[in-house]
Amino acid sequence: MRISNRFLSLLSFAAFALAVIPVRSATITTYNDPASWQAASSTLQPTITFEGLAPANGNTTYQSPTGVTTGGVEFIGYLSNGSSWIEVLDTNVSPWYNFGSNDALVQSLDRPNAGAPVPYIHIVLPADVTSAGMDLFTASPNAATYTITINGTQYSVPTNARPTQAFWGFTSDTPISSIDLTLQGTVYNGSSFAFLDNFQYGIAAGTSGGGGMSDAPEATTFVLIGSGLFGIAALRKLLGKNAAPEAK
Fold first, then answer.
1. Contact 31, 37 (CB under 8 A)
2. What is the CA 138 to chain-centroid distance, rounded?
3. Could you tell me the maximum CA-CA distance found in the chain, to the nearest angstrom?
4. Per-residue b/e over 38-64, b at no fewer than 16 CB within 10 Å?
5. Which of 79, 108, 103 is nearest to 93 (CA)?
6. What beta strand segments (E) does the chain contain?
7. SS3 state at 52
8. How far apart are CA 148 and CA 121, in angstroms?
9. Among 35, 83, 90, 128, which is 20 to 30 Å from 222 by CA?
10. Do 51 and 172 belong to one domain?
């Protein structure tokens, strides 16, 4: 059966396109020690402390779909019904909330019944961020465990009893666009609160600001390029074999 020149040309183009696409897999490393995380990060931006966003011994509530944006990061809270709700609280207002953090971001974990979705915090990062860290704490009860989701992978992050905040951070070899946080094991009428403070982001050490793409191609890329070129050569040979013979 004769294969048309046009079809072979399309196959050649597809083989070349696949050959030059670099293959990368995201690798995320997590940290519970702030010094280790800072040593693995560079180009860190100023720490987001939420200071001044709440009145003394009071709170400021954000119910818009965009939440609160500060330091270039968007923090959005989602309730069980999908509506937006998050607030910045002066944690000095109560000894139950006071982890020495002053103003902090807080999300209520209350929901109408035990089967309702658990509220969560959605963090939208600027472009090309490959490193971020934060302090976490909880109330009612203290020392509850967070579930943090990045790129579809969930991490369990325990917190500490009052008054010690728990640090958690990560580095990645590819850009991370968002982070989701919620608490495990909270009851629907337990008045549980998730707190976040001292958020910082930057670039993982050893990666570029463009998302960790190295200037040198990876070995996998070289293999794919070679395979693609071999495929093109084979197709050209097949094309020659299927060409119509010249008229004598």
1. yes
2. 21
3. 100
4. bebbbeebeebbbeebbeeeeebebee
5. 103
6. 28-31, 41-42, 59-62, 68-70, 73-78, 86-90, 103-108, 120-124, 131-139, 145-150, 153-158, 166-172, 178-183, 193-204
7. coil
8. 10
9. 128
10. yes
Give 54-95 pLDDT, tens digit per residue: 999 999 999 999 999 999 999 999 999 999 999 999 999 999
CB count within 10 Å of CB 170 equals 22
Domain holding 32, by residue range, is 28-204
8 Å CB contact between 211 and 171: no
pLDDT tens-digit series, residues 124-175: 999 999 999 999 999 999 999 999 999 999 999 999 999 999 999 999 999 9
CA–CA distance, 133 with 82 (Å, rounded to integer):
26
3-state secondary structure of 103: strand
The whole-angstrom separation of Cα 96 and Cα 92 is 9
**SS3 category, 229:** helix
According to DSSP, residue 92 is labeled: G
Direct distance between the N- and C-terminal alpha carbons of the chain, in angstroms, rounded to an integer? 23
66 and 137 assigned to the same domain:
yes
Placement of tokens 């579930």 in the chain? 147
The total number of structural domains that make up the chain: 2
Residue 81 tokens read as: 């019904």
